[in-house]
Amino acid sequence: MIKEIALAGVYLSPMLGYLVVALAITGLARFALDRAGAYRWIWHPALFDLSLLLIVLTAIVVATM
After folding, report:
1. Strands 10-12 and 5-7
2. Which residue has the higher pLDDT, 27 or 64?
């Protein structure tokens, strides 16, 4: 696990860095699922997107431990 991120003298939580990476990966996954037509089978797309983000974020945090 990484320590705090120093940005211009301000210390930020490493969770912010994990979240940025998770958002990028989730955005790519959403694009791929949209192009494949998977969203027409999903009942609540916003809830699915949030769940996908949390799953990716959890996987990143566990992988860096």
Report:
1. antiparallel
2. 27
